[in-house]
Write a structure and sequence with these properties.
The protein is 43% helix and 10% strand. It is built from 8 helices and 6 strands. Helix 7 (178-186) links the parallel strand 5 and strand 6.
């Protein structure tokens, strides 16, 4: 039997993570949609491996309108299925698949995903995107909600960020928002910081990203 690739090993580790109540593991075994999300993540990471990204963009955590459904950091169903044509990423024709989670049928787009991928498409830039806490933190009893990751959750997320940094070597690491910046700071990882695009942060996010990627 051949050994698992580093990417497959990372996805397997994500699938096996045990979380406290109030967080959803969208990669865990035992749910058919999670198998689709694991496959989507594998397609994305292998595509990025071929593209050899030099920049890491680290965000906070999956939202219920994005990565919670697709398995891809800051990627909504709209972007997953329709693709980001300017960057030749995603789309049904590339093998990415939709999910059918009950209760999420009307969830299709996500504001942060639209802003991030729109900005990257305009700049023709393709960093690797990841989350400080790679699972979906939600309010108690309400899976269609988001919340800030807790300290213990970020400690767990740091383990997966370290794994990621053993697979790729980046010339530039950009933290999007305070949560991602604090995680990298605690790990002693040198990085730049831009504002998160949510809650009115679009213009500052785009301006900060453009300034950094122009010199990358």
């Amino acid at each position: 039997m051949s050994a698992l690739s580093p990417i497959d090993t990372l996805i397997s580790a994500l699938a096996q993570a045990h979380l406290q109540p109030g967080a959803f593991n969208q990669y865990a075994p035992g749910h058919p949609d999670n198998a689709i999300r694991r496959a989507n993540l594998g397609l994305y990471l292998r595509a990025m491996q071929r593209r050899k990204p030099t920049v890491l963009l680290l965000l906070e955590a999956p939202g219920y309108r994005g990565c919670r459904l697709t398995g891809l950091p800051v990627t909504s169903r709209r972007i997953l299925l329709e693709g980001c044509k300017a960057l030749d990423m995603f789309g049904r024709e590339a093998g990415f698949r939709d999910v059918g989670d009950a209760g999420f049928e009307r969830v299709y787009g996500e504001q942060s995903a639209t802003i991030v991928w729109g900005a990257l498409a305009e700049m023709r830039a393709l960093p690797l995107i990841w989350n400080a806490f790679p699972f979906h933190p939600h309010k108690a009893g309400n899976p269609l909600s988001n919340r800030k990751p807790r300290a213990a959750e970020l400690a767990l997320g740091a383990e997966y960020t370290r794994r990621l940094l053993t697979i790729w070597t980046f010339a530039q690491i950009i933290a999007v928002g305070n949560v991602a910046h604090e995680l990298l700071r605690r790990q002693g990882v040198a990085c730049h910081k831009v504002r998160h695009p949510a809650n009115g942060g679009k213009n500052d996010f785009v301006a900060g990203l453009r300034a950094l990627l122009t010199v990358a």
